[in-house]
Amino acid sequence: MAILAGVLQAWSLAWPWHTDGFPAGYGQPLWWLQLLSLAVLPAALMRVQRAWHGVLIGWGFACAWLCATFWWLFISMHTYGGLPAPLAVLAVFALAAFLALYYAIVCGLFVAWRGERLAAAMLMFAALWLLAELARGQWWTGFPWGAGGYAHVDGPLAGLAPWIGVYGIGAVASAMAMWLAGLRAVHARHVSGYVALAVLVGVVWLAQRLPQAAVAAAPNQPVSVALLQGNISQGEKFQASSGIPMALAWYAQQLQQSQADMVIAPETAIPVLLQQAPHGYWQELQQRFASGKQAALVGVPLGDFEQGYTNSMVGLVPGSAEPYRYDKHHLVPFGEFIPPMFRWFTDLMKIPLGDFNRGGMNQPSLAWAGERWAPNICYEDLFGEELASRFVDGAQSPTIMVNASNIAWFGDSIAIDQHLQISRMRSLELARPMLRATNTGATAVIGRDGAVQQILPHQSRAVLQAQVQGVDAAPTWFAQWAGRWGLWPLWGLDLLVVLAGWLGRRR
Prior knowledge:
- This protein is of the alpha/beta class.
- It has 17 helices and twelve strands.
- The strands form two sheets. It has a six-stranded mixed sheet, covered by helices on one side.
- Helix 6 (118-138) packs across helix 8 (191-209).
- It starts with a helix and ends with a helix.
């Protein structure tokens, strides 16, 4: 039951089948499925008395959940990386099995420390669950893909995002799941459980109605944007005979012809170092945007093989002496940097440009057309606390967020829709629109309320023409505390709750 529930937990993040009202291939998050599937876990834990039984149940749930969430890593490692299929399967399972240990440990602790009353069990389960989610999201560079809170980007808990972020939502959801599980338990007869649920519902209701400056502020004047989706398969993207000339030609044509105020090309839209591009290629693009009333953000690797290179976005702005530059800060292990002692593993795969230098943490935004455009590259938008750091200086805080990605590494898989939900959550947390320019999808315009306003079909070569309105207002409460202190406030509060529960159990 725990393993089956873990698979359903993964599907709740982006339901992998077509649903009426959503474009074909668009995975819909199901918040109610996340609650029901998670409720199976504490229900199972309350049936056992030994902590090590809880460890096994928790590990089975989490391992199934994570395998079903990021199974598409197999595509990047085997189909495009050239790793033999058995090794690629083993690698995905090993990653899931390792990350599942966080949840296994906290489930064992829950069995050992759970209280007699439902309210105490709710608080303890939520605190321990949050502990595992924070550890997965930050330790060993962090890999929080598929955190349970992302299933609630459309649900009643979405109103908590600008206050406590995706991890806080996940903690509230886990408390509710514990309450559902406790309905069949003997201690459900205690009134305290219903009081605790009423408190949670009241907090959710209040969060949706308390005003925040960024949420209530009037948006700026519309700015026209063109989001480019080249749809160049990963198998061709870095091929000198096919993908490279195709990308250079198509993106140059769109950049030259676009009439939008801002043109945005995805991550590594130019798939070679600038000195490797055809003679005059980059100079022509710079000349195109050297004057007039248009600007561009283009994904391109910068640097050289001797000094190192960066995964970057370059901004071409009229009247600027030097192009704007953003270098990716949070790199992908194995894909963009090689962890210590793992070079043997990456040597088994054929990944071009696989060892980037890291950019700074809090790089300035691009000022253009009365807006401050803040780029982030690929899975950097998984780390809301890092994006929030750009809001510490209110006068320079972003008015529009931009995510440039290349999910072609994972084929036409559910990874595309899972990443879309991640970007939507960042818009909710920060109350800023998010523009997504991607190679194969999901290229989209996301409003400051997390709603998808426009989206291109996956796996299509097209340009998304849209109007976007930035938000120039005081940051959300989440942006303020996470921007200054990261996730330490959550860590501190969570550890206090766990410690209090442990001391109470000992007494």
